[in-house]
């Protein structure tokens, strides 16, 4: 008969296939003789400790990234971070909302910082997906002003949505205490967007549709499009710009951008 994980030689360790031996004394078990091999009844507290520990160690499978519980964890974390802030947010509350144990949560995300970074990445990637079709149209455009306006309208509407703006305010408020979080936001947000626009504008310049320094063009385009809405949202959190105002703002940003960087025949007259 195969050896049970509950059986151990006399001493203080219990072994099983897989991870290294676990010392029972570390979880309050005085010895393997008394805890795992003895027929003497265990007291209630000791039994509960053993049951909880061994359920986690021997019965709960390790789940990899991308498993079904990850979206639940990220949803719960996002809710708690936005309500509490990063510092006061408690992993216990996140686990409770996601209906999982804290041990399971840490299998997915070993620290609160990594969990917050994952929330940021998911939000930004979701925003990018909503603009993918417009980026594809721009890459193959035969109507640069029209396609750039369509992209600008979609992009500014997406990134100034209430949830992303709340997350941006949260990151800004925690930047001094948690600079790594601010760098994560900047890397996955502004810098990633700049890289995408530089590649796109560079390709359009090669086609003779744009002219000038495309690194500067990308920075100027982002600022023209997002500067005013971001500043307004930072200082007047309750204000949400109307869709028609954002569309007009996006159209004006595109006109200014093309006046500076559009090639001959593309600049507005």
UniProtKB/TrEMBL annotation:
Database matches in InterPro entries: Homeodomain-like_sf, HTH-type_TetR-like_transc_reg, HTH_TetR, Tet_transcr_reg_TetR-rel_C_sf, TetR_C_Proteobacteria
Alphabetical keyword list: DNA-binding, Transcription, Transcription regulation
GO biological process, alphabetically ordered: negative regulation of DNA-templated transcription
GO terms of molecular function: DNA-binding transcription factor activity; transcription cis-regulatory region binding
DNA-binding residues (ranges): 90-109
Pfam families, alphabetized: TetR_C_7, TetR_N
Protein name: TetR/AcrR family transcriptional regulator
Domain HTH tetR-type: 67-127
């Amino acid at each position: 008969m195969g050896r049970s994980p509950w059986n151990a030689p006399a001493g203080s360790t219990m072994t099983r296939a897989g991870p290294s031996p676990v010392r029972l004394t570390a979880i309050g078990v005085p010895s393997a003789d008394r805890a795992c091999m003895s027929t003497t009844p265990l007291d209630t507290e000791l039994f509960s400790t053993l049951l909880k520990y061994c359920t986690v160690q021997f019965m709960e499978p390790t789940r990899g990234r991308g498993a079904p519980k990850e979206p639940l964890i990220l949803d719960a974390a996002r809710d708690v971070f936005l309500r509490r802030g990063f510092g006061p947010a408690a992993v216990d509350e996140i686990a409770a909302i996601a209906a999982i144990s804290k041990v399971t949560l840490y299998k997915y995300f070993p620290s609160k910082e990594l969990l917050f970074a994952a929330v940021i990445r998911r939000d930004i990637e979701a925003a990018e997906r909503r603009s993918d079709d417009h980026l594809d149209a721009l890459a193959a455009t035969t109507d640069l002003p029209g396609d750039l306006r369509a992209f600008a309208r979609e992009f500014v509407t997406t990134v100034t949505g209430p949830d992303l703006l709340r997350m941006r305010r949260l990151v800004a408020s925690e930047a001094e205490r948690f600079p790594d979080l601010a760098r994560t936001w900047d890397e996955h947000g502004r810098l990633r967007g700049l890289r995408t626009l530089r590649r796109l504008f560079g390709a359009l310049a090669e086609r003779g549709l744009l002219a000038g320094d495309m690194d500067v063009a990308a920075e100027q385009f982002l600022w023209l499009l997002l500067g005013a809405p971001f500043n307004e949202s930072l200082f007047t959190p309750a204000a949400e710009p109307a869709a028609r105002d954002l569309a007009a703002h996006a159209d004006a940003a595109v006109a200014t951008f093309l006046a500076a960087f559009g090639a001959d025949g593309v600049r507005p007259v």
